[in-house]
Amino acid sequence: MEKLKNLLASLITIAAFIAASPQTASPASAPLEKLTLGWSAIAGSQAPFWITKEAGLFEKNGLDVTMIYLDGGSKATQAMMSGDVPIAQVGGNAPIVARLRGVDVTLIGGLLNILAYSMVVSPEIKRPEDLRGKKLTVSRFGSNSDYATRKILIKWGLKPDVDVAVLQIPGGQPTRLAAIQSKQVHGMVAQPPVTNLARKFKMNIIAEPEDFGGAYPTTPVAARISFVKDKRDATRRFTRALLEGIHLYKTNKEFSKKVIAKYVKTDDVDALEDSYQFFSRLVPAKPYPSLEAVKEALTELGEKDPKVRSAKPEDFVDMSLIKEFDDNGFIDGLYKKK
After folding, report:
1. Same domain, yes or no, for 126 and 205?
2. Residue 270 belongs to what domain range?
3. What are the two backbone dihedrals, phi and then psi, of residue 183, each rounded to the nearest 5 degrees?
4. Is the pTM of this model over 0.70?
5. Which end of the chain is more exposed for a tag (fewer CB within 10 A), N or C?
6. CB-based burial of residue 1 (10 Å sphere; 0-12 exposed, 13-18 middle, 19+ buried)?
7. pLDDT bucket at 338, cuts 50 / 70 / 90
8. Under 8 Å between Cβ of 261 and 197
9. Does the CA dihedral 237-87-210-272 come out positive or negative?
10. Which residue, of 179, 212, 245, is where some domain finishes?
11. Is residue 43 within 8 Å of 194, Cβ to Cβ?
12. Confidence band (pLDDT; 50, 70, 90) for 191?
Protein backbone atom coordinates (compact mmCIF):
# COMPACT_ATOMS: atom_id res chain seq x y z
CA MET A 1 0.00 0.00 0.00
CA GLU A 2 2.85 2.36 0.88
CA LYS A 3 4.52 1.68 -2.50
CA LEU A 4 1.25 2.48 -4.29
CA LYS A 5 0.98 5.79 -2.44
CA ASN A 6 4.56 6.68 -3.37
CA LEU A 7 3.91 5.79 -7.01
CA LEU A 8 0.78 7.95 -7.11
CA ALA A 9 2.67 10.83 -5.49
CA SER A 10 5.41 10.55 -8.12
CA LEU A 11 2.88 10.54 -10.95
CA ILE A 12 1.19 13.64 -9.51
CA THR A 13 4.56 15.41 -9.27
CA ILE A 14 5.44 14.54 -12.88
CA ALA A 15 2.00 15.69 -14.10
CA ALA A 16 2.37 18.99 -12.24
CA PHE A 17 5.84 19.53 -13.74
CA ILE A 18 4.55 18.90 -17.28
CA ALA A 19 1.61 21.25 -16.73
CA ALA A 20 3.95 24.00 -15.52
CA SER A 21 6.47 23.54 -18.34
CA PRO A 22 6.33 25.64 -21.52
CA GLN A 23 4.41 23.71 -24.17
CA THR A 24 6.25 22.87 -27.36
CA ALA A 25 5.24 20.93 -30.40
CA SER A 26 7.09 17.67 -30.95
CA PRO A 27 7.71 15.77 -34.17
CA ALA A 28 5.62 12.90 -32.84
CA SER A 29 2.55 15.03 -32.10
CA ALA A 30 2.57 17.60 -34.89
CA PRO A 31 4.48 18.42 -38.08
CA LEU A 32 7.27 20.95 -37.69
CA GLU A 33 6.54 24.42 -39.01
CA LYS A 34 9.06 25.59 -41.60
CA LEU A 35 10.94 28.82 -40.86
CA THR A 36 13.82 30.49 -42.70
CA LEU A 37 16.30 32.49 -40.62
CA GLY A 38 19.13 34.71 -41.77
CA TRP A 39 22.53 35.38 -40.21
CA SER A 40 24.92 38.03 -41.40
CA ALA A 41 28.56 37.65 -40.28
CA ILE A 42 31.19 34.93 -40.00
CA ALA A 43 32.04 36.00 -36.46
CA GLY A 44 31.41 34.87 -32.90
CA SER A 45 28.73 37.55 -32.50
CA GLN A 46 26.40 35.30 -34.53
CA ALA A 47 26.82 32.26 -32.25
CA PRO A 48 23.35 32.28 -30.57
CA PHE A 49 21.55 31.30 -33.79
CA TRP A 50 24.17 28.68 -34.64
CA ILE A 51 24.04 27.05 -31.22
CA THR A 52 20.25 27.04 -31.09
CA LYS A 53 20.19 25.31 -34.47
CA GLU A 54 22.92 22.75 -33.79
CA ALA A 55 21.47 21.80 -30.38
CA GLY A 56 18.12 20.93 -31.97
CA LEU A 57 16.28 23.56 -29.94
CA PHE A 58 14.28 24.86 -32.88
CA GLU A 59 12.99 21.33 -33.53
CA LYS A 60 12.27 20.92 -29.84
CA ASN A 61 10.00 23.95 -30.15
CA GLY A 62 8.19 22.70 -33.23
CA LEU A 63 10.17 24.51 -35.95
CA ASP A 64 11.92 23.15 -39.02
CA VAL A 65 14.52 25.89 -39.48
CA THR A 66 16.64 26.62 -42.52
CA MET A 67 19.43 29.12 -41.88
CA ILE A 68 20.83 31.27 -44.68
CA TYR A 69 24.08 33.22 -44.59
CA LEU A 70 23.60 36.79 -45.86
CA ASP A 71 26.86 38.70 -45.91
CA GLY A 72 26.35 41.91 -43.93
CA GLY A 73 23.42 43.56 -42.15
CA SER A 74 22.32 45.53 -45.21
CA LYS A 75 22.04 42.39 -47.36
CA ALA A 76 20.20 40.56 -44.58
CA THR A 77 17.72 43.42 -44.31
CA GLN A 78 17.19 43.38 -48.09
CA ALA A 79 16.33 39.69 -47.88
CA MET A 80 13.79 40.50 -45.19
CA MET A 81 12.31 43.30 -47.30
CA SER A 82 11.87 40.87 -50.20
CA GLY A 83 9.90 38.53 -47.96
CA ASP A 84 12.34 35.63 -48.34
CA VAL A 85 13.54 35.77 -44.72
CA PRO A 86 11.07 36.76 -41.98
CA ILE A 87 13.57 36.77 -39.09
CA ALA A 88 17.32 37.45 -39.12
CA GLN A 89 20.36 38.29 -37.05
CA VAL A 90 21.24 41.59 -38.67
CA GLY A 91 23.56 44.43 -37.84
CA GLY A 92 24.04 48.14 -37.92
CA ASN A 93 21.42 50.67 -38.92
CA ALA A 94 20.09 48.78 -41.96
CA PRO A 95 16.82 47.59 -40.36
CA ILE A 96 16.33 51.04 -38.82
CA VAL A 97 16.79 52.70 -42.22
CA ALA A 98 14.30 50.23 -43.67
CA ARG A 99 11.76 51.07 -40.96
CA LEU A 100 12.23 54.79 -41.61
CA ARG A 101 11.30 54.09 -45.24
CA GLY A 102 8.08 52.38 -44.19
CA VAL A 103 9.21 48.75 -44.45
CA ASP A 104 7.48 46.49 -41.92
CA VAL A 105 10.66 45.55 -40.06
CA THR A 106 11.13 45.77 -36.31
CA LEU A 107 13.74 44.66 -33.76
CA ILE A 108 12.53 41.86 -31.49
CA GLY A 109 15.83 41.11 -29.75
CA GLY A 110 19.28 42.48 -29.00
CA LEU A 111 22.12 39.94 -28.90
CA LEU A 112 24.99 42.41 -28.97
CA ASN A 113 24.28 46.04 -28.13
CA ILE A 114 27.76 47.59 -28.29
CA LEU A 115 30.35 48.07 -31.04
CA ALA A 116 32.40 45.00 -30.16
CA TYR A 117 35.20 45.44 -32.69
CA SER A 118 38.96 45.74 -32.86
CA MET A 119 40.89 47.54 -35.62
CA VAL A 120 43.29 45.06 -37.22
CA VAL A 121 46.02 46.51 -39.46
CA SER A 122 49.02 45.26 -41.43
CA PRO A 123 52.37 45.08 -39.58
CA GLU A 124 53.74 48.34 -40.99
CA ILE A 125 50.84 50.33 -39.48
CA LYS A 126 51.78 51.29 -35.93
CA ARG A 127 49.50 54.24 -35.12
CA PRO A 128 46.19 55.62 -36.40
CA GLU A 129 47.92 58.42 -38.31
CA ASP A 130 49.80 55.77 -40.33
CA LEU A 131 46.49 54.97 -42.02
CA ARG A 132 46.49 58.22 -43.98
CA GLY A 133 46.58 57.34 -47.68
CA LYS A 134 45.89 53.68 -46.97
CA LYS A 135 42.92 51.35 -47.60
CA LEU A 136 40.52 49.73 -45.13
CA THR A 137 37.95 47.09 -45.99
CA VAL A 138 34.36 46.55 -44.82
CA SER A 139 31.76 43.91 -45.71
CA ARG A 140 29.28 46.29 -47.33
CA PHE A 141 28.52 49.99 -47.15
CA GLY A 142 25.90 50.57 -44.48
CA SER A 143 26.91 47.47 -42.52
CA ASN A 144 28.17 47.27 -38.94
CA SER A 145 31.76 47.07 -40.10
CA ASP A 146 31.27 50.15 -42.29
CA TYR A 147 29.78 52.18 -39.43
CA ALA A 148 32.47 51.12 -36.95
CA THR A 149 35.26 51.85 -39.45
CA ARG A 150 34.00 55.33 -40.25
CA LYS A 151 33.30 56.14 -36.61
CA ILE A 152 36.81 55.28 -35.41
CA LEU A 153 38.43 57.12 -38.36
CA ILE A 154 36.49 60.29 -37.56
CA LYS A 155 37.42 59.93 -33.91
CA TRP A 156 41.07 59.84 -34.99
CA GLY A 157 40.66 62.97 -37.13
CA LEU A 158 40.78 61.08 -40.44
CA LYS A 159 38.15 61.60 -43.13
CA PRO A 160 36.72 58.36 -44.53
CA ASP A 161 36.98 58.14 -48.33
CA VAL A 162 39.30 61.16 -48.33
CA ASP A 163 42.21 60.49 -46.00
CA VAL A 164 41.55 56.74 -45.89
CA ALA A 165 39.87 54.70 -48.63
CA VAL A 166 37.04 52.42 -47.51
CA LEU A 167 36.46 49.44 -49.81
CA GLN A 168 33.81 46.72 -49.87
CA ILE A 169 35.05 43.13 -49.82
CA PRO A 170 32.12 40.75 -49.26
CA GLY A 171 32.64 37.18 -48.10
CA GLY A 172 33.09 37.43 -44.35
CA GLN A 173 35.84 38.51 -41.99
CA PRO A 174 38.22 35.65 -42.94
CA THR A 175 38.09 36.82 -46.56
CA ARG A 176 38.94 40.38 -45.53
CA LEU A 177 41.76 39.15 -43.31
CA ALA A 178 43.20 37.35 -46.33
CA ALA A 179 43.02 40.64 -48.26
CA ILE A 180 45.27 42.25 -45.64
CA GLN A 181 47.71 39.34 -45.87
CA SER A 182 47.87 39.71 -49.65
CA LYS A 183 48.42 43.48 -49.27
CA GLN A 184 45.26 44.42 -51.18
CA VAL A 185 44.25 46.55 -48.19
CA HIS A 186 45.85 47.68 -44.95
CA GLY A 187 43.24 46.98 -42.29
CA MET A 188 39.74 46.13 -41.14
CA VAL A 189 37.54 46.08 -38.06
CA ALA A 190 37.27 42.52 -36.79
CA GLN A 191 35.92 40.31 -34.05
CA PRO A 192 37.05 37.04 -32.49
CA PRO A 193 38.10 34.52 -33.66
CA VAL A 194 39.54 36.59 -36.55
CA THR A 195 41.30 38.99 -34.13
CA ASN A 196 43.15 36.08 -32.57
CA LEU A 197 44.22 34.81 -35.99
CA ALA A 198 45.41 38.31 -36.89
CA ARG A 199 47.69 38.35 -33.86
CA LYS A 200 49.18 35.04 -34.95
CA PHE A 201 49.86 36.56 -38.37
CA LYS A 202 51.82 39.37 -36.61
CA MET A 203 49.28 42.04 -37.51
CA ASN A 204 48.75 45.00 -35.19
CA ILE A 205 45.60 45.93 -33.30
CA ILE A 206 45.37 49.69 -32.85
CA ALA A 207 41.85 49.94 -31.39
CA GLU A 208 39.87 47.76 -29.00
CA PRO A 209 36.09 47.73 -28.37
CA GLU A 210 36.26 50.38 -25.66
CA ASP A 211 37.79 52.80 -28.19
CA PHE A 212 34.70 52.76 -30.41
CA GLY A 213 32.28 54.16 -27.85
CA GLY A 214 28.89 53.23 -26.31
CA ALA A 215 25.72 51.49 -27.38
CA TYR A 216 24.98 50.37 -30.94
CA PRO A 217 22.75 47.66 -32.48
CA THR A 218 25.64 45.43 -33.50
CA THR A 219 23.65 42.19 -33.55
CA PRO A 220 19.91 42.74 -33.16
CA VAL A 221 17.28 40.19 -34.12
CA ALA A 222 14.93 41.73 -36.67
CA ALA A 223 11.59 40.44 -37.89
CA ARG A 224 8.93 41.48 -40.34
CA ILE A 225 6.11 43.12 -38.41
CA SER A 226 3.55 41.29 -40.53
CA PHE A 227 5.17 37.94 -39.71
CA VAL A 228 5.13 38.65 -35.96
CA LYS A 229 1.45 39.55 -36.24
CA ASP A 230 0.30 36.75 -38.55
CA LYS A 231 2.61 34.04 -37.18
CA ARG A 232 2.65 35.01 -33.52
CA ASP A 233 2.83 31.44 -32.25
CA ALA A 234 5.76 30.57 -34.53
CA THR A 235 7.53 33.76 -33.47
CA ARG A 236 6.98 32.87 -29.81
CA ARG A 237 8.40 29.39 -30.37
CA PHE A 238 11.39 30.88 -32.19
CA THR A 239 11.97 33.24 -29.24
CA ARG A 240 11.71 30.45 -26.69
CA ALA A 241 14.20 28.33 -28.64
CA LEU A 242 16.62 31.25 -28.92
CA LEU A 243 16.44 31.93 -25.18
CA GLU A 244 17.27 28.27 -24.55
CA GLY A 245 20.12 28.57 -27.05
CA ILE A 246 21.55 31.61 -25.27
CA HIS A 247 21.40 29.72 -21.98
CA LEU A 248 23.27 26.80 -23.56
CA TYR A 249 25.82 29.23 -25.01
CA LYS A 250 26.51 30.71 -21.61
CA THR A 251 26.63 27.43 -19.69
CA ASN A 252 28.20 24.88 -22.06
CA LYS A 253 31.49 26.22 -23.32
CA GLU A 254 32.79 23.07 -25.00
CA PHE A 255 29.66 22.48 -27.08
CA SER A 256 29.53 26.17 -27.99
CA LYS A 257 33.15 26.18 -29.15
CA LYS A 258 32.53 23.15 -31.38
CA VAL A 259 29.61 24.94 -33.02
CA ILE A 260 31.60 28.15 -33.50
CA ALA A 261 34.42 26.10 -35.05
CA LYS A 262 31.98 24.62 -37.58
CA TYR A 263 30.59 27.97 -38.72
CA VAL A 264 33.78 30.03 -38.78
CA LYS A 265 35.70 27.07 -40.22
CA THR A 266 38.67 27.03 -37.88
CA ASP A 267 40.08 24.51 -35.44
CA ASP A 268 42.47 27.02 -33.86
CA VAL A 269 42.04 26.31 -30.14
CA ASP A 270 43.16 29.74 -28.98
CA ALA A 271 40.96 31.55 -31.48
CA LEU A 272 37.89 29.56 -30.44
CA GLU A 273 38.55 30.17 -26.75
CA ASP A 274 39.02 33.87 -27.45
CA SER A 275 35.75 34.02 -29.37
CA TYR A 276 33.81 32.24 -26.63
CA GLN A 277 35.21 34.32 -23.78
CA PHE A 278 34.72 37.58 -25.67
CA PHE A 279 31.13 37.17 -26.83
CA SER A 280 29.41 34.84 -24.36
CA ARG A 281 29.66 37.43 -21.58
CA LEU A 282 28.29 40.22 -23.81
CA VAL A 283 25.13 38.42 -24.96
CA PRO A 284 22.43 39.17 -22.37
CA ALA A 285 20.35 36.39 -20.83
CA LYS A 286 17.35 38.64 -21.39
CA PRO A 287 18.07 39.95 -24.90
CA TYR A 288 15.69 42.88 -25.11
CA PRO A 289 16.18 45.22 -28.08
CA SER A 290 18.30 48.11 -26.79
CA LEU A 291 16.64 51.53 -26.94
CA GLU A 292 20.01 53.17 -26.29
CA ALA A 293 21.53 51.31 -29.23
CA VAL A 294 18.66 52.36 -31.52
CA LYS A 295 19.00 55.94 -30.30
CA GLU A 296 22.69 55.91 -31.25
CA ALA A 297 21.86 54.60 -34.73
CA LEU A 298 19.21 57.31 -35.16
CA THR A 299 21.71 59.97 -34.06
CA GLU A 300 24.12 58.71 -36.71
CA LEU A 301 21.44 58.82 -39.41
CA GLY A 302 20.21 62.22 -38.22
CA GLU A 303 23.58 63.79 -39.05
CA LYS A 304 22.71 63.40 -42.75
CA ASP A 305 18.92 63.59 -42.61
CA PRO A 306 17.40 66.14 -40.20
CA LYS A 307 13.98 64.46 -40.52
CA VAL A 308 15.33 61.44 -38.62
CA ARG A 309 16.07 63.51 -35.52
CA SER A 310 12.44 63.48 -34.41
CA ALA A 311 12.17 59.69 -34.60
CA LYS A 312 11.58 57.82 -31.34
CA PRO A 313 13.59 54.65 -30.57
CA GLU A 314 10.43 53.00 -29.20
CA ASP A 315 8.95 52.98 -32.70
CA PHE A 316 11.67 50.64 -33.98
CA VAL A 317 11.41 47.82 -31.42
CA ASP A 318 8.95 45.21 -30.20
CA MET A 319 9.73 44.32 -26.59
CA SER A 320 6.69 42.06 -26.16
CA LEU A 321 8.25 38.71 -27.07
CA ILE A 322 11.20 38.84 -24.67
CA LYS A 323 8.99 40.50 -22.06
CA GLU A 324 6.52 37.61 -22.14
CA PHE A 325 9.22 35.08 -21.29
CA ASP A 326 10.72 37.44 -18.73
CA ASP A 327 7.41 38.11 -16.99
CA ASN A 328 6.37 34.44 -16.82
CA GLY A 329 9.67 33.42 -15.24
CA PHE A 330 10.83 31.26 -18.16
CA ILE A 331 14.20 32.97 -18.55
CA ASP A 332 14.99 33.01 -14.83
CA GLY A 333 13.95 29.35 -14.69
CA LEU A 334 16.55 28.38 -17.28
CA TYR A 335 19.36 29.70 -15.11
CA LYS A 336 18.00 28.14 -11.91
CA LYS A 337 18.12 24.63 -13.34
CA LYS A 338 20.91 22.45 -12.00
Report:
1. yes
2. 29-114+215-336
3. 70, 20
4. yes
5. C
6. exposed
7. low
8. no
9. positive
10. 212
11. yes
12. confident
